[in-house]
Amino acid sequence: MALLSVLTPVLAVVLCLVIGFMLVRSRDTETTSTSPDKTKAASKANLRPWVDQDLQDDTESRAREEEDGDWVDSNEEEDLPHVPYSPKRYTEETMLERTKDFYTLMNQRRSVRFISPEPVPREVIDNVIRTAGTAPSGAHTEPWTFVVVSDTETKHQIRLIVEEEEEMNYRQRMGDKWVNDLAKLRTNWIKEYLDIAPYLVLIFKQTYGILPNSKKKTHYYNEISVSVSCGILLAALQNAGLVTVTSTPLNCGPQLRVLLKRPANEKLLMLLPVGYPASDATVPDLKRKPLDEIMVHM
């Protein structure tokens, strides 16, 4: 009996500890189970589908709309007048002929890594960039900057940055499968064409705009808009008889942005060496998919 009287307080303490532990465990489990939902709800509330999450630039001082008041209000912008639009209309025969001719021209387009150092008239490049600038964009924000580099030293600096990162990509980041898939194309981290091509065109996407009054303007779907512009740019180069190879230098964006003195709201999307094909240029003997493999007609 004496033993029981001694153990009773001990048992009571143990029981209290067990109950307390169970209550804490239950509360933690509830918090854990609801936390993802709250996080998902918060993410959904802040979701802006036109803002791209890739190609992050760690040198950027990220600005958030909700953290400052220097973003332009859409009500501040002037209303645009609408004007008549009457483009030339072709006969069906002419349409068919023009579409066939344009397909024949574009079907000759290839990614060319052997580029001649022969000079290209600057005005030709200007017209090509003008053509790329006709692309559609979200809310007509035109979120692109085309940096044209012809200076020999700057081109070489670009090559050094790209090759250093590309070697790291091939040796470590890309993985065996990616490297093996590229082997048939005979590509590697050596990019001689960055020195040789008369022009390098670096296309930056503007993640937001900066107005003359220093206010910031949202650029909707900026990466999609700039990608469409790049497609038009490639067509314009082909139309001019020039060649290029589409290059998306992985992890080079921040360094190249600093080298070219571009502002923090711009991120590198694509790099294009531009020129005439070298006299001994070769390309892989690739075949394109037929129409029935790329089109679904309903």
Automatic annotation (TrEMBL):
Family according to the record: Belongs to the nitroreductase family.
Keywords: Flavoprotein, FMN, Oxidoreductase, Signal
Named cofactor requirement(s): FMN
UniProt biased composition (Acidic residues): 66-79
Enzymatic reactions: 3-iodo-L-tyrosine + iodide + NADP(+) = 3,5-diiodo-L-tyrosine + NADPH + H(+); L-tyrosine + chloride + NADP(+) = 3-chloro-L-tyrosine + NADPH; iodide + L-tyrosine + NADP(+) = 3-iodo-L-tyrosine + NADPH; bromide + L-tyrosine + NADP(+) = 3-bromo-L-tyrosine + NADPH
Record protein name field: iodotyrosine deiodinase
UniProt record, GO biological process: tyrosine metabolic process
Domain Nitroreductase: start-end pairs: 108-276
Signal as UniProt keyword: yes
Signal peptide start and end residues: 1-26
Region ranges (Disordered): 28-86
Enzyme class: oxidoreductase
This protein's record includes keyword Acyltransferase: no
GO cellular component: plasma membrane
